[in-house]
TrEMBL record:
HAMAP family: DeoC_type1. It comes from Chitinophaga oryziterrae. It is found in: Cytoplasm. This is Deoxyribose-phosphate aldolase. The gene is deoC. Its EC number is 4.1.2.4. GO terms for molecular function: deoxyribose-phosphate aldolase activity. SMART domains: DeoC. PANTHER family: DEOXYRIBOSE-PHOSPHATE ALDOLASE (PTHR10889:SF1). Coiled coil: none annotated. Pfam families: DeoC. The lineage of its organism: Bacteria, Pseudomonadati, Bacteroidota, Chitinophagia, Chitinophagales.
Length: 217
């Protein structure tokens, strides 16, 4: 198992500095991580830092609470694509999920997907599994499978509960094989990272990626 290729090396704090981004990108290139996941204003810069390496640049939209208007998420998506982001981690409208407004959620993803596909980008939809009921997680999997998103992602890292093995297993059981799972939020040890991969995660969002890699040796 090449653990490094599972990892999105991540910094999304609102206090993130340019030096933080430079260091993150240098570490990502050194360890050949799958991607860096960073705030939108740093996308252009991160692209220059990672250069022509295997490491992709991911950013977030609708972050961290997901209740931005669809029009706002469209604008964020377009701007991220203009800045040459490779992957977009979009927070689903969590208010709509908790209130059972599946019609709104369908409209949201149906509006975003053509933009993503037209530009050949990767989309990961964040559902914040740690605060959802099992039936809500299953319903999300069914909806996003219908629209053939690339990944369903467990968490933003901002809720009281992040990734869990149980949530990843539930998602894997309710998603078609071609849709991947990104686990994120609270992944701090090699042991937990491996548990999540064994449960079905194919990408991990981590801020302590280097420490996890050192522990895997």
């Amino acid at each position: 198992m090449l653990l490094n290729r599972y990892i999105d090396h991540t910094v999304l704090k609102p206090t993130t500095t340019l030096d933080n981004i430079r260091q993150l990108c240098m570490e990502a290139v050194e360890y050949d991580f799958a991607a860096v996941c960073i705030p939108p204003p740093f996308v252009k810069l991160a692209k220059t830092f990672v250069g022509n390496t295997n490491t992709k640049v991911a950013t977030v939209t609708g972050f961290p609470f997901g209740y931005s208007a669809i029009e706002a998420k469209v604008a964020e998506t377009v701007l991220a694509i203009i800045d040459e982001a490779d992957e977009l981690d979009m927070v689903a409208n969590l208010l709509a999920i908790r209130n059972g407004d599946w019609e709104y959620l369908e409209k949201e993803i149906a509006t975003i997907m053509p933009i993503i596909r037209n530009k050949g980008k990767v989309i990961k939809v964040i559902i914040e599994s740690g605060i959802l009921l099992e039936e809500e997680i299953i319903r999300c999997c069914q909806l996003y499978a219908k629209y053939q998103v690339d990944f369903v992602k467990t968490s933003t890292g901002y809720a009281e509960k992040g990734a869990s093995v149980a949530a990843v297993k539930l998602m894997r059981a309710n998603l078609p094989a071609n849709i991947q799972i990104k686990a994120s939020g609270g992944i701090r040890t090699f042991e937990f990272a491996k548990e999540l991969i064994d449960a079905g995660a194919t990408r991990l969002g981590c801020s302590g990626s280097v420490e996890i890699m050192k522990a895997s040796v």
